[in-house]
Amino acid sequence: MGSRLTDTMWFRKFKCAHGLWILAALGPVYLLFILIRIYPILETIRLSFYKYHITQKQNPFIGLRNYERLLEDDAFHTALINTLVFTVMAVLVTLILALLLAILLRSIEHVAGIFEIIFYIPVVTPWVPASVIWKWLYDPMYGLINYCLSLFGIPKQGWLQEPRLIIYAIVLVSAWKMLGYYIIVFSVGLKNIPITYLEAAEIDGASLFNRLRYIVLPLLKPILLLRWS
């Protein structure tokens, strides 16, 4: 009885020490997260109820007046619509292309690693040099994209000047930047799907679309949920 009580006390002390060690290791990370992310968000929300100006010492409380002005601002409505359109298009284009390329890479596994590295290079490329490169590619006079289009008789386009084209240009850049990351995510998920499932479905006469819809996508759901949680 005494031995069991001693073991229980030792386990509790070990568990307590283990918890303190985890708290000491993660404490600075949580503190930085609160100071860098949580506090600025809360402070921004608080200041939104004041008539705030950086050069003024007195900032009177005005309640919801800033939000009323925002809802009446046409520029805000335009920005909100453009943001929603960009988000939907960028997510769909990136995920669909990444899934198709991941499926293609699985069929050539002996060289898939090389292509995964190539596709992942944009992910680790800083935005500043990437923006300079794409600005040159989109240049209406000397850009490579317009040059390639001119070979097929298509007139030069102002990709970053025309409102009807700029949203597609930005979506393309966003998809290029994150495509490699999602290819890796989908590749990991596809490797965990037993090939026997797909072979059995093919023998039963399931088309490629049905195999993708009823086997691949449902089995990829856990990894997608983990990514977006």
Can you give me a brief rundown of this structure?
By secondary structure, this protein is mainly α.
How would you describe this protein?
Helices cover 78% and strands 0% of the residues. The chain folds into two domains: 66 residues, no CATH class; 119 residues, Orthogonal Bundle (MetI-like fold), CATH 1.10.3720.10. It starts with a helix and ends with a helix. It is mainly α. It has nine helices and no strands. The model has no long low-confidence stretch (mean pLDDT 83). Helix 7 crosses helix 9 and helix 8 packs antiparallel against helix 9.
Instruction: Write the CATH architecture name of the largest domain.
Output: Orthogonal Bundle
Termini separation: 46 Å
Principal-axes shape call: extended
Q: Total strand count, please?
A: 0
H/E element string?
HHHHHHHHH
What distinguishing features does this structure have?
MetI-like fold, mainly alpha, 2 domains, 9 helices
Protein topology:
Blueprint: H1 2-47, H2 65-71, H3 74-106, H4 109-124, H5 127-137, H6 144-150, H7 163-191, H8 195-203, H9 208-228
